[in-house]
Amino acid sequence: MKFSESLKKNSDFQRVYREGKSYANRFLVMYLLENGTGFNRIGISVSKKVGNSVIRHRVKRLVKEAYRLHEDMLLQGFDIVVIARISAKKISYWETKSALMHLASLQNILKLNKEMSEIEKNNDFVY
């Protein structure tokens, strides 16, 4: 991950849960909090309810890889916590990528969404 670091401390996770804004879809929940730096920090949480250690680690790797490949599309300066739901047990990479990008667009941290909203604010287009 070239633009990001990992969240490791429990206190960092708790602060994001407490002060951050969350959105969810069928497979994932994403908490987001501004961190005041020029880079993102990401933490991934997969509960024992999802499955045994092999399944949990697989889900974590899928989320991390989907984030890594698309992190250049995201705005920087946020603490992000991604939580896998039980339905993520049999998730594919493509479903993981789609779920992660969906949550990023809901959180309004996709660069494309931000640029389009700025263009719409600056121009009075009539549709």
**Secondary-structure-derived class:** alpha/beta
Reported for the largest beta sheet, the result is: 5 strands, mixed
- Percent of sequence in beta strands: 15-25%
Oligomer: single chain
Measured between the Cα atoms of the first and last residue, the distance is 40 Å
Q: Let me know the number of strands.
A: 5
Radius of gyration: 15 Å
How are the strands of the largest sheet arranged?
1-4-5-3-2
Q: Can you count the helices?
A: 4
Unreliable residue runs: none
Task: Output the helix-strand order.
Answer: EHEEEHEHH
What best-fitting shape do the alpha-carbon axes yield? Answer: globular
Mean pLDDT: 89
The percentage helix is 40-55%
Describe this protein's structure.
The protein is α/β, with parallel strands linked by helices and 127 residues long. It has helices at 10-19, 53-70, 93-106, 111-122; strands spanning 4-6, 21-24, 28-34, 40-46, 78-84. It has a five-stranded mixed sheet with strand order 1-4-5-3-2, with helices on both faces. α2 packs across α3 (93-106). The N and C termini lie far apart (40 Å). The model has no long low-confidence stretch (mean pLDDT 89).
Overview features:
127 residues, alpha/beta, five-stranded mixed sheet, 4 helices, globular
Strand and helix layout:
Blueprint: E1 4-6, H1 10-19, E2 21-24, E3 28-34, E4 40-46, H2 53-70, E5 78-84, H3 93-106, H4 111-122
Parallel strand pairs: 1-4, 4-5
Antiparallel strand pairs: 2-3, 3-5
Helix pairs in contact: 2-3
